[in-house]
Design a protein that fits this description.
9 helices; Alpha-Beta Plaits; 302 residues; 30% strand; alpha/beta; elongated; four-stranded antiparallel β-sheet; 2 domains; Rossmann fold
Length: 302
């Protein structure tokens, strides 16, 4: 059995009314998307911003009466009846549909991220088999790629690592494959914790002795790590700087990403009381900041 999809365009002030009308008429889901490619990269805390023009994509049962639904929608919205752009969708395994566009990616000389259904021919390759599921992190986004490039080109073997904001677990699992002694992976999203466990198990690494996964409270009273990976956003990186700085041992490294190039100076200012800046790498509008914990840093506020 398939589905009927209806795509409508509304201005930001009309989105709520159109969404409510679609749901009242039996839409099984309504997805909001940018209509004019005007991305919102980092909303403020507590904000739910919308684009000036929004696509509303509604899914209905395949046996929905199109004419009756269209007339009722026009009545609810106070509009004249018009022909609507209905589209029939065949039922498929939608959660895996996107994987056809996700090919193996190489970082450094030997490290690869390989999705389900693909193989890497190089017998000397270090391969991460990845199925991110519902959590963020495939290696295709600039911020994740920047972090993977750092891991693939630096000495990680034997180091104790924290993956803060682990998403799919891609960075923590990569660190383990590259020889890290132990990884503590934390996230506030339960789906991320599930995805991290699943991806670690897929790579034969879901061992409590080497991988601990949990909410940020997992790090309360934890011993400092030699490497902190934090691919989150500039706002949390600034707000959490004292807390995260305390998680890095003297001489250890912090690799920060999820930062727009225009935000780099603000993030650096928040971290420099405890760290030396080793460099900033850029990819498109995003950047990665590499820092080293000072041997005698300023004390971290409580």
């Amino acid at each position: 059995m398939g589905w009927l999809q209806l795509r409508l365009v509304a201005t930001a002030d009309r989105v709520e009314a159109v969404e409510d009308a679609l749901l009242a008429l039996g839409a099984l889901s309504v997805t909001l998307a940018d209509h004019r490619d005007l991305p919102i990269l980092e909303p403020g805390v507590g904000e739910t911003p919308l684009w000036p023009e929004v696509d509303l994509i509604a899914l209905f049962d395949a046996d929905t009466d199109r004419d009756a639904t269209g007339a009722a929608l026009a009545a609810l919205l106070g509009e004249a009846a018009r022909e609507l752009p209905w589209e029939y969708l065949e039922d498929r395994a939608w959660e895996r549909e996107w994987l056809q566009y996700f090919a193996p990616l190489r970082f450094g000389e030997r490290f690869w991220v390989c999705p389900s259904g693909h193989e890497v021919a190089d017998p000397d390759a270090i391969v991460m088999h990845l199925d991110p599921g519902l959590a963020f992190g495939t290696g295709t986004h600039q911020t994740t790629a920047l972090c993977l490039e750092w891991l693939a080109t630096h000495a990680v073997a034997g180091r104790d690592v924290i993956d803060y904001g682990c998403g799919s677990g891609i960075l923590g699992v990569a660190a383990l494959l590259l020889g890290a002694r132990r990884v503590r992976a934390v996230d506030i999203d339960p789906q991320a914790l599930t995805a991290t466990h699943d991806n670690a198990a897929r790579n034969g690494l879901d061992e409590p002795a080497r991988l601990l996964v949990g909410a940020p409270a997992l790090l309360d009273d934890a011993a400092p790590a030699e490497l902190l990976l934090a691919n989150i956003l500039a706002g949390p990186l600034i707000e959490l700087a004292p807390r995260l700085a305390a998680l890095v041992a003297p001489g250890g490294h912090a690799v920060l990403s999820g930062v727009l190039a225009t935000q780099a100076d603000s993030v650096l200012a928040a971290w420099l009381p405890w760290f030396t800046h080793l460099g900033t790498a850029h990819r498109d509008e995003w950047c990665r900041i590499e820092l080293q914990r000072s041997e005698r840093p300023a004390p971290c506020p409580a």
